[in-house]
Here is the input.
Amino acid sequence: MASALAQEKLAARARRISTLRRRIVASVVATFVLAWGVVAFDGSMGAETTTVAATGSTSSATDTTTSTDTTTSASSSQDDGSTLSTQQS
Here is the structure.
């Protein structure tokens, strides 16, 4: 009789351990899937890269006329169209 009771207790313990292991594996898989879903929906969570375009300013040409000579003065800033990219590491 004692042997049968011991066998029942061991079998019940094995079932509890098996159930606990299955629940742990299921929760780990669910957490992994949820994390990948968040990354797929929201994108990468690393440092963001920003691009800033340089804008040039130009001043208008000024004409000065005298009785014998015409002088044109123009001042402008050149914009080569390049962009500035910064990254934070």
Notes: The first helix runs from residue 2 to 42.
